[in-house]
Amino acid sequence: MRPSTPVFAAIALFTLGFAGAGLHVLATAPGEAARMEASAALVRAAGLTDLALFTEARYSRHPSMADLHSAFQDAPMSFEHFPSGTFVSPPVGFGGGRLGGSAEEVAQ
Amino acid sequence: MTPWINRQRSLADYTLAALGRRKGKTFALVAVYALVVFVVASAMLFATALTREADLVLAEAPELTVQHVKMGRHEMIDGAEITKIAGLRGVSSVEGRLWGYFYDATSGANYTFQVPSDPALVPGPGEAIVGEGVQRARRATWEGAPLFLSRFTGDMVKFEVARTLGAESALVSSDLVLLNEADFRAFFDLPDGVWTDLAVSIRNPREIDTVIDKASRLMPDARFVTRDEIRRTYQKLFSWREGLMIALASAAVLAFAIFAADKASGLSADEAREIGILKAIGWDTRDVISMKLWEGALVSLGAFLIGTLGAYVHVFGFGAGLIAPVLKGWSVIYPDFRLAPLVDGMQIATLFLLTVLPYTAATLVPIWRAASADPDQVMR
Hints:
The complex is a heterodimer of chains A (108) and B (380). By secondary structure, chain A is mainly alpha-helical. Chain A is 48% helix and 0% strand. Chain A is elongated and about 85 Å long. Chain A starts with a helix and ends with a helix. Helix content of chain B is 56%, strand content 16%. The longest helix of chain B is centred in the middle third of the chain and has 39 residues, at 227-265. The chains are: A mainly alpha (108), B alpha+beta (380). Chains A and B meet through helix 1 and helix 2 of A and helix 1, helix 2, strand 1, strand 6 and helix 5 of B.
């Protein structure tokens, strides 16, 4: 047997594995779509706004509803102390640096 | 078979025989390479699947949520605001939402208490509908084990569990305890006519900005959160987390890059000798380069296939067991969720280009230099 035969066969096998993964995606798609539709229906019926991924603190349980990153919200001098806090990126463009009015409006 | 294919096949045979002579080294290289691909691909697949799920599921969240903000904190909102907002053009309905948190000292977990907006989901008096994580955290021994909650020392409130929400929706419902309005107000000692926040439905999504503009004049101290902002919060969260995972993996990637560059670009004395002998027995420069390209391509393609396929099985077969502990953090209730399999062709192509091509290319330059030199020079 030539040395390349088993190696090429293995590569073909892994490529088939890729095709298998693709088929798995297609085969599970209808069931998963139904499951996600059921979750979406629950979100609608219960009026939910967030994912239950991080349940340890109120601002990590509902990141979209949390206070606007108020300082010291749990205790004075407290830094972020939950690991999930590291998953939330700092806000982009936080604070525009101006109130938004023109000079004329401010002078009024 | 055309002569070209025959020739390439023979070169591959020779390359593999040469790799076979350095079995341990080749095996270690492919294993480490595949592991690096596995970590990066796992993070990519996980984040993509989670983002898609969040997008689809939270598409049903309220179009606009209105919070009352006092002293920089979220406060209860007065029921009188409902009529104010409902009077605005373009608003189809306004509903007060009641939700809050409860720390259960017996299980050490935080629950999210909520009154469902759909009457069909509202449990009867003294009853609760709970998420799968609540029963798990309480170590409930049977499906409908009643919920005993203590708000302070000497206090005990009992709710019958009317239903447990299934694991299929765990990602949104794991820590939920759904109550009816009267029970919720009694449990938290809330007066009538106040709400946690307001959920606003707007007829035409393009009017959301106008409605916010008008509403913020009526309620200058309110904060408005749109459904689109909720979606963006999660997109940002997941892309940040994916980036964080890849950043954590970057030390490994860097170490591998140094290892691979050293392996691929620096020729060992043995390899230089080998090339010299090949040239001396009549191989030309092109043959030597083709042979080495085969080596680079086989090693990196093998590692890519093993790593990516392994990542797929890990994320969608085993629920990303190696990533989950990083996500769990300190929460007692972590949803027992599975993700819908999803493969983004573009992402896989990017991963392929970032892993297979550089390695194969890195092998080229030094080989070309050695192969074009005089055999006598190289062998010395």
